[in-house]
Amino acid sequence: MPDTLQRLTLLESIIGAVNLGAIVLDENRSIVLWNRWLERHSGWKADTVLGRDFFEVFPELQHKRIESAITQALRDNFQSLLSQSLHKSPFPLYPQAAATSDGRERMQQAVAVTPISLPGAPRHCLIQITDVTVAVGREKLLREQTMVLRSQTFSDGLTGVANRRHFDVAIDKEMRRAKRSGSPLSLLMIDIDHFKDYNDQYGHQQGDTCLKQVASALATMLNRSGDVLARYGGEEFAAILPDTEPGKALMLAEAIRKGVRALAIENGHEDGAARHITVSIGVATQSGAAPLDIDQLIGAADRALYQAKDGGRNRVASTAPATPPA
Amino acid sequence: MDHSKQVLVVDDSRVSRLMAHQFILSKHAGWQITEAATGEEALEKVKALDPYLILLDVNMPGMGGVATAEQLRALYPQTHIFLVTANVQNAIRNRASELKVGFMEKPITEVRIHQLIDTLEA
Amino acid sequence: MVNLSELENDALVEIFNIGVGHAAAAMSEIVNEEVTMSVPSITFLNRADAAALLGSKRDGDRICGVSQHYDGAFATEAILMFPEDKSLEIVRLMVGDSVPLQELTEMEQEAMSEIGNIILNSCVGTLANLFDSELHGSLPVYHVGTSTEILAVFGDQGDDVVLMLHIDFVLAKHQIHGYVAFVLDLSALHDLKEQVNRYLAKVFGTA
Question: Phi/psi zone of residue A43: left (φ > 0), alpha (ψ -120 to 50 degrees), beta?
Answer without folding.
Answer: left
